[in-house]
Each structure stands twice: as C-alpha cells, then as structure tokens.
Design brief:
Layout (H helix, E strand, L loop, with lengths): L1 E5 L4 H17 L4 E5 L2 H6 L7 E4 L2 E5 L5 H8 L1
Parallel strand pairs: 1-2
Antiparallel strand pairs: 1-3, 3-4
Helix pairs in contact: 1-3
Length: 76
C-alpha cells in the first residue's frame, strides 16, 4: 500500500503523517509512506487544501487531519 501525505511540511502535515503511519501499523499492512511537498505535484492530484491523504492513488481526505481511527477506516 502506498500512502502519500500532501502538504508543505507544516505541523498539520507532520501530524497527518504520524497518524497515517500509526494507523497502517495498527492494521498490520505493508505500506510505504511518501511525503509530497511540491505544490504542482499536490495540485496535480486534485488537492486544493492541505494536508491531503492519498492511498494507492486515491485522495481520501484533504484540508484536515483525521483521527487515527478514521484513517484506519480509510485504509481498509
């Protein structure tokens, strides 16, 4: 599973990356976490509000930081 966190590297982006990693580890899935910080790459994925969470190429959330439980649901 490829998990991408889209954002400039702000505090919310870092929190989303931490929560996504925790959620994936909690599910016991094999995953790769990638941080995308370049705005042209973020916009190309259709995300207009950061932070964004992309799982296997599909945008799952944008503009807020979901809870670990909510991210776990998005990863299933």
């Amino acid at each position: 599973m490829k998990i991408e966190v889209l954002g400039s590297g702000c505090a919310k982006c870092k929190l989303l990356a931490e929560r996504a990693e925790e959620a994936a580890k909690g599910l016991g899935v094999d995953f790769t976490l990638v941080k995308v910080t370049e705005y042209p790459d973020i916009v190309a994925r259709g995300v207009m509000s950061t932070p964004g969470l992309v799982v296997d190429g599909a945008v799952k959330s944008q503009g807020h930081v979901p809870t670990v439980a909510a991210i776990r649901d998005l990863l299933r």
